[in-house]
Task: structure prediction
Amino acid sequence: MRIQKTTYHSFAIVAALAGAAFVGAFMFIHRAGATFPNSSQSRFDLLPVQAFVENPRSYVGNRYRIKGCLDNVLGSTGSGEGMKRLVSIAVGEGKYIPVLVPASSVSFDIQKEQSLVVYCSINGDGLPVAERIQKE
Result:
């Protein structure tokens, strides 16, 4: 009888630990916005434009999605794969968000007035840096 009780308790402990590990891993992956192997997108919340405009540095290190229309190319630096462009994205009536666009983040030629979804992270200066851009 003693052996069965010990085996049952061992099994229960192992099952509880495995369940806790699974729940913890799920929560970590969901919270961190990690990409599953068969998923093409990570979790990017929509950028809260008004709050961001008022204090962009409070968003440093976070990842967001910006939906808008390409307003203008403000400047560029580098060439080839190292090229970066600074663009403005119109996100509402009279509201523009500057975005740094590395060449590696876009797989097509972006044009003025094109509707885009920009997946970005906010750098240390409070500037969104595109990780990926898609046509909307």
